Amino acid sequence: MRVLSNYHAHSTFCDGSDTPEAMVEAAIEKGFSLFGLSGHAYMGFDTEWCMTPAGEQAFISEMGRLKKTYGDRITLLTGVERDYYAPEPKGPYDYVIGSVHYIKKDGRYLSVDESAQAQTEAVRRYYGGDFYAYTRDYFNTVADIAKIRPDIIGHFDLVAKFNEGGVLFDEEDPRYLSPALEALRAVTETHTLFEINTGAMYRYGRSAPYPSPTLLKALKEYGGDIILSSDSHDTASIGYKFREAAELAKSCGFQYAKILLPSGLAECKL
Ligand SMILES: [Zn+2]
Ligand SMILES: [Zn+2]
Question: Model-level pTM?
Answer without folding.
Answer: 0.97
